């Protein structure tokens, strides 16, 4: 019996050691492909957050390989396992708007007039993120601005491909706009807001509602480092920040393909730019081009990219990238000029920086009032850590 026990202990020790080596090897590989720019404040904190995210992904992959659960399921579980208690300043309730789960945050303090309403769409690359991951942020927005915040738990990829997330956000927003009186909200003061993929969804919803005469006009859109196009992943910011945590260039492309098709079969073609025919690229070049990026954003290691053509087979799988509901930067001027007042946040060390810069120009060219805030030391995802105690960043706050 003692021999069996000793063998079991040894086997367990070998398994644990192998597990640790696998995790450390994956972390080391990811490290070799990552870069913390000198302009980032508190680089050690960013590196620690990066290690935590890599470790979570690696453990998830190991669990997937041994048949316990999928990597995506594990990461989602780890993201959403923290639950916050009662908030002394807010009424918080989970509801359903048109079969879409939402969480509503209403300030307890009485208001002499109708409140502002904020539809919030969380980030996470359309694959991750939930009502839980952005709970602290939504509570902070509701408390700080004394607004009624509606966080939308839209369906995620790859299980639910485009346009599922967009349709959920649109339907939830329309439902709220038709029922604002139930929540003490001014129907003329409803805002759509989101970060990353959520910024994409906010922009798409805003465009769809711009021409609706049966609903009040949206008061504003707030786009926090939004992903707005999939035609060119070789813009200056994608080149300069390709290996900067927390969103690598390859990962941004992967997420977009997951949302589109539920897989990343054409990842290499999209990365090199051989997924869209040249004639179509040239047609959109008036809106998606390095020429529209201010020169000061090109000085940090940018090289113009050669236009590549694509095969019919590849284009057929990704042609919906040309739909504005998926890539809002490609909307026609007739839609863009009807958009409400806008706020755009960009970060210098974010692959998505230029998506925001290009959209800012499009809005301004069409007479839309834009407030633009650029975090010179910011990186993708910095907002999420605004109140993470010792892992927070001043810019995020």
From TrEMBL:
UniProt-recorded name of the protein: ADCL4 protein
Q: Which organism is it from?
A: Ciconia maguari
Q: Which SUPFAM superfamilies match?
A: alpha/beta-Hydrolases (SSF53474)
A GO CC annotation recorded here is: membrane
Q: Record's PANTHER family?
A: AB HYDROLASE SUPERFAMILY PROTEIN C4A8.06C, ALPHA_BETA HYDROLASE FOLD-3 DOMAIN-CONTAINING PROTEIN
Tell me, what is one Gene Ontology molecular-function annotation carried by this entry? carboxylic ester hydrolase activity
Q: Which UniProt keywords apply?
A: Hydrolase
Domain Alpha/beta hydrolase fold-3 span(s) in chain numbering: 118-264, 314-383
**PROSITE patterns linked to this entry:** LIPASE_GDXG_HIS
Q: Does the keyword Hydrolase apply?
A: yes
Question: Hey, which family's this protein in?
Answer: Belongs to the 'GDXG' lipolytic enzyme family.
């Amino acid at each position: 019996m003692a021999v069996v026990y000793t063998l079991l202990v040894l086997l367990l020790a070998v398994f644990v050691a192998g597990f640790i080596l696998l995790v450390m090897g994956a972390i080391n590989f990811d490290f070799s492909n990552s870069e913390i720019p000198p302009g980032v404040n508190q680089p050690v904190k960013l590196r620690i957050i990066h290690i935590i995210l890599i470790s979570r992904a690696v453990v998830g992959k190991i669990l997937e390989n041994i048949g316990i659960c999928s990597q995506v399921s594990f990461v989602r579980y780890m993201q959403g396992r923290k639950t916050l208690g009662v908030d002394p300043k807010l009424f918080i309730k989970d509801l359903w708007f048109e079969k879409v789960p939402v969480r509503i945050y209403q300030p307890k303090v009485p208001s002499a007039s109708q409140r502002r309403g904020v539809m919030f769409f969380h980030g996470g690359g359309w694959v991750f993120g939930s009502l839980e991951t952005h709970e602290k942020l939504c509570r902070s927005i509701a408390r700080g601005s004394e607004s009624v915040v509606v966080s939308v738990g839209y369906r995620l990829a790859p299980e639910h491909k485009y346009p599922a997330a967009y349709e959920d956000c649109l339907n939830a927003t329309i439902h709220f706009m038709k029922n604002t009186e139930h929540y003490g909200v001014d129907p003329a003061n409803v805002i759509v807001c989101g970060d990353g993929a959520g910024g994409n969804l906010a922009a798409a919803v805003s465009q769809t509602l711009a021409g609706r005469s049966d609903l009040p006009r949206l008061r504003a859109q707030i786009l926090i480092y939004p992903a707005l196009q999939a035609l060119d992943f070789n813009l200056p910011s994608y080149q300069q920040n390709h290996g900067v945590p927390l969103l690598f260039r390859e990962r941004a492309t992967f997420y977009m393909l997951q949302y589109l098709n539920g897989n990343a079969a054409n990842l290499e073609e999209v990365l090199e730019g051989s997924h869209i025919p040249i004639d179509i690229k040239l047609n959109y070049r008036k809106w998606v081009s390095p020429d529209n990026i201010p020169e000061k954003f090109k000085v940090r290691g940018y090289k113009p990219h050669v236009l590549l053509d694509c095969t019919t087979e590849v284009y057929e799988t990704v042609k919906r990238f040309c739909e504005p509901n998926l890539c809002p930067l490609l909307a026609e001027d007739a839609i863009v000029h009807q958009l409400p007042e806008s706020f755009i946040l960009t970060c210098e060390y974010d692959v998505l920086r230029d998506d925001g810069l290009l959209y800012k120009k499009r809005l301004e060219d069409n007479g839309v009032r834009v407030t633009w805030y650029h975090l010179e030391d910011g990186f993708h995802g910095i907002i999420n850590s605004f109140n993470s105690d010792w892992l927070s960043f001043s810019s995020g706050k």
